[in-house]
Design brief:
The protein has about 190 residues and is of the alpha/beta class. About 55% of the residues lie in helices and about 10% in strands. The longest helix has 15 residues. The chain starts with a strand and ends in a 12-residue tail after the last helix. It binds BIS(adenosine)-5'-tetraphosphate.
Amino acid sequence: MRIILLGAPGSGKGTQGQRLMARLNIPQISTGDLLRAAVAEDTALGRKAKVAMDAGQLVADEVVIGMIDERLTQSDAGDGFILDGFPRTQPQAVALDELLRRLGQPLDRVVNLEVGGEEIVKRLLARGRSDDSETTIRERLEVYTAHTKPLLDYYRERGLLAIVPGVGDMDAIFERVMTAIGPAPSRYHVLPA
Ligand code: B4P
């Protein structure tokens, strides 16, 4: 299956993406993880990305689009994938549509994890990553509202969007996500719970 996990920072995309990967046996592809790996390796791209990430800003579209283009054309993504944290802007969504058209791989579902702003601030302060200070979190929420939230309409208009309440027990949220994506087409091998 080809799934996008949408949601505000800290809404649980990474958390639920991991579980989906284990259940569906397809890779979870997180632009946040790819960027943090580049930062850890201290590459030129990583050094540039770090400045944006530490400020709560998005990394440039062409950078993340290039990363996704490279990642989705690897063989393990041929049977499906879970995109976690991408797309985050309209140009990223358009670029993804073009890439998937080229690969002949249409999206199956876009799941939006809904979590309120104050719960997000609480969660991210508790997570304590280097980009999880209160000022940065509030900046990231503003960036989310301005650039990523409009993607809900983009995917709603395409009949792909499912809204899942993302607050409460993580296992219960996972079952809601599984219900939202519906039964896997028979070409996919779904692992038992
Ligand atoms: P990401 O790595 O995508 O991180 P995130 O949005 O902060 O977190 P996520 O939603 O995955 O939350 P998680 O499961 O970890 O982005 C980091 C930065 O990278 C961005 O700010 C940006 O600069 C850059 N970036 C990434 N993608 C980009 C793109 N496409 N374009 C441009 N820039 C990009 O959960 C958060 C915490 O909540 C965890 O501690 C978790 O344990 C907890 N939690 C999860 N579910 C919970 C629940 N149900 N109840 C209580 N706590 C819960």
